[in-house]
Amino acid sequence: MSLLVIFRSILLILLIVCAIAVNLTKDLLRAVIIFMSYSSIMCLIWILMESPDLAITEAAVGAGISGTLFLVTLKKLRAEDHTEENE
Amino acid sequence: MKERFFKWFYGESDPMEHILDCAEVPDESREEWKYEEHEIEREISRRVHTQSVIRAERRGFYAFYLIIAVISCLMLIGVLLFTVSQLPRYGVENPRAKEVIERYVEKGLEETGAVNIVSGMILDYRAFDTLGESHVLFTALLCVMILLRLDEKNKRTRYENYYTVLADPYYDISTDPIMRIAATITLPSIFLFGIYILLNGQISPGGGFSGGAVMGAALIIYAAAFGFTVTDRVFTYRMSRCITFLSLAFYSFAKGYVFFTGANGIPNGVPKGTPGAVLSGGLILPLDIAVGMVVACTMFGFYSLFRRGSIGGE
Hints:
Strand content of chain A: under 5%
Number of strands of chain A: 0
Largest interface: A-B, 18 and 19 residues
Helix content of chain B: 55-70%
Order of helices and strands of chain A: HHH
Number of domains of chain B: 2
Number of helices of chain A: 3
Oligomer: heterodimer
Radius of gyration of chain B: 28 Å
Largest sheet of chain A: none
Order of helices and strands of chain B: HHHHHHHHHHHH
């Protein structure tokens, strides 16, 4: 077994673990962070599959922008909860 | 029917509220003080009864929902596995797919002038796909605008506009020193990297979509670290509208022209340039720039709409 095969299988196992963990996590903030790490792992896998175009897009959109949008949404939801508690 | 639709559309009532218990509008009829005592008791018993009915309905709905979810999951898994089983084996030659691949690999450089064959495919041979993708993004931005834009209909108070949303200290993170210093250090290289990917789409991996996404992410970091007042100076609603329209129109006309002349066998007169140089690949570079502009505007527009309900400064 070469080093690359071991690395690739570790990445694939981590990918599956992340995908399951997103569903099982109760805390939404943690779920978003796990989702972003899922995208980062996917980005590495794209590089190993020799498609750097997709890797760049995955890193920018999957790990960056969609995660940011999720975080902003969470912030808005929590902000509204926060004001209700104060009232 | 029409009236109910408009009530739902403007958020005054929710057709699923007795099932899902997610009504946002307060119930106007809950004025217990105007009933007599026995009327109150009758009302309470009626409500308890309705509650139990609703609870039973909800339980039934959730059971139904679970069953449907499991069935559709299994069907999706089945369809995907069936499709995978129909695919040719990995690494085995497939005569049907071979012709197109051979054409792309052998004639790609000569016909498109792009060293990066992926760019040559998505912006030359299959440019209509990419045009559709840009329009999908644009449509997504329009949907987000319909839902989240702060206008007369969905203001919570009369004085709420996007300036007051930002003035709320809970939303304001632009005073965070860590964010500011990190953004100051990393932003120039992120912007440069985005422009590099955008302009080198025809000679190295990347292209319009990835470069535009990186530039949009850089704009988002800029707005998050220094506040929207800084980005409003350069990025206005009017400018975003102009850029998106011009890019999409340029893309459609340029590709329409090339496809029209190509289909009729007329030389289109677009210079191919030296393969490997930045100014090469015929129309690929301008199309890359157009797609990148649309994507950057859309990504920043998403963030801005999510944060404050407006696409840019007025």
